[in-house]
Design goal:
The chain has a single domain (3-256), classed as HUPs (Rossmann fold, 3-Layer(aba) Sandwich). Helix content is 54%, strand content 9%. The protein has helices at 3-20, 38-49, 64-81, 90-94, 98-107, 114-132, 144-156, 190-199, 216-230, 234-256, 275-283, and strands spanning 30-34, 54-60, 85-89, 137-139, 181-182, 260-261, 268-269. β6 (260-261) and β7 (268-269) form a beta hairpin. The longest helix is centred in the C-terminal third of the chain and has 23 residues, at 234-256. The protein is globular, with a radius of gyration of 19 Å. The model has no long low-confidence stretch (mean pLDDT 89).
Length: 284
């Protein structure tokens, strides 16, 4: 299909995903978590084009030139669209960068890659800050590839129960302190978001985060890409199969899961102490 046909196809897919899974309404107060990358920029652009009112929120991970370029790009993009952008430096929240956290934890024998640390910290900041601005939905740019990779990783690690928190709307246990996270690009392949962003000339970097190159996810991504070439539709079939068992996973998780509140910061947690506070204690 030509570029115009593809744009119509892509936007129709996002619109249908929102409708099918009841992700958003025009009454929602929407915050879009942006990174300056192609996926979150695409999500922001499409939702704006579909007429949703929103603001963007970026967690500055302080990863040198990579972060500076992303920050510059998304600033210009939001200014051109007239969308408010909130920038939250990681150092203001935790007193240091993700890279520094990893170096300290490595020195203490804690084997966590940068992506794991960053994920824990970003999710916590986004939930808390979105709650502060009274958001009712937090949009992320996760695409079909991301979902297939995460589900596959959980299976390989024997942690199928963790997949109960996945899906077009994440989470299982509801609480007023949790802002529902939704994924309008859920059925869009990464290759499709790349093409959409290039057709629209979005100012984004297409190189992966420099800290993610040695992660397990990167290897799983390569393997799934190879399978997709051999058998087109592999990623979609994997996610469709997952969605068939998701209701059972959520039901089981509700029985065994228990929502608590962190004894230190008061944020919702599955443990007596949340992951953020546990990591910050290890940093001391």
């Amino acid at each position: 299909m030509n570029d115009n046909q593809f744009v119509e196809y892509f936007e129709r897919k996002v619109r249908q995903t929102i409708k099918q899974h009841k992700l958003l309404s025009k009454k929602d107060r929407i915050v879009v978590a942006v990174s300056g990358g192609k996926d979150s920029t695409t999500a922001l652009h499409v939702l704006h084009k579909l007429g949703y009112e929103m603001e963007a929120m970026l967690i500055d991970q302080l990863l040198g030139d990579y972060s500076r370029t992303n920050l510059s790009n998304i600033k210009k993009f939001c200014e051109n669209m007239g969308v408010k952008l909130r920038i939250i430096p990681m150092r203001e929240e935790f007193g240091c960068s993700v890279c520094y956290m990893k170096s300290v934890l490595d020195g203490k024998g804690m084997r966590m890659n940068t992506c794991q640390i960053c994920g824990v910290m970003r999710r916590s900041i986004l939930n808390r800050r979105a709650r502060e601005v009274k958001a009712t939905k937090l949009v992320t740019g996760h695409n079909l590839d991301d979902e297939a990779q995460t589900f596959f990783m959980n299976m390989l690690h024997g942690n199928i129960n963790l997949s109960a928190k996945l899906g077009p709307t994440t989470g299982v246990l509801k609480d007023s302190r949790f802002i529902p996270r939704v994924k309008p690009l859920y059925y869009c392949l990464e290759a499709e978001t790349t093409r959409y962003s290039k057709i629209n000339n979005f100012p984004v970097q297409y190189e992966p985060c420099p800290c993610s190159l040695d992660s397990f996810r990167t290897q799983v991504k390569k393997d799934l890409n190879k399978l997709e070439i051999i058998n087109p539709g592999t990623k979609l079939n994997l996610v469709k199969g997952f969605l068939k068992i998701l209701p059972k996973l959520k039901k089981q998780y509700k029985k065994t899961g228990e929502l608590k509140y962190c004894s230190k910061c008061g944020e919702p947690s599955s443990q007596d102490k949340c992951k953020v506070c546990s990591l910050m204690e290890l940093m001391k």
